[in-house]
Amino acid sequence: MREKTLKIVNYICIAIYVVTLGIAVYLNLGKTQGLIMCGAAVICPLLMPALLKILKIKAPLEFHIVNIVFMYFASLWGSCLGGYSTLFFDKIIHCLSGVLVGEVAYVVYKYYLREDRRKSLMFIFMTAFNACVAVFWEFYEYALLVFINNDAINHYSQGVHDSMQDMLVAVLGCFVLTLYLMKYDQDNKPHFFVELERKFSKMNNFLKHKEEKV
Q: Exposed, middle or buried by CB within 10 Å (0-12, 13-18, 19+), for 84?
């Protein structure tokens, strides 16, 4: 029953994304940069699923729902419909990205160090992983400025402040998630972010693969 509900939610999210994308394309007709960002909004939701497919990793429906919802606001609404002109919108998105990247870091961490109980190591790994991704995202925004003169990095108006703040709130988002995971990592109750990793592990037989390597 739960899986059926998740499938319906997933289809609804995809439908909303497609309809909104069509509206965004219409509103950006005649605007070169706007249409380029609409093109990016087509690609962005497919990046993580494509990467998982290349790596031959199965993902639970919760992952696909979170992915499409995040890209709806971060890429489609933010870049194509003027979301980033709204006060604090950009910082909220970057903070949420820290949470999501932190969850990816958690999945990677549990794959390699599932039996390790050192909370300090989990904290260091997840923070470093997230900070690395945040830096590369700023590289991407800088590339937009250099190659198509899209000032997503707010270079002309804020200098380095926007980049530093974006990385700061991303690390903060991951920091909060890490504290949550450190507390509930060994809990048997179905906490969402802990349970999401466990579903990844179960669907892909990560535990079996680890045992075979040993």
A: middle
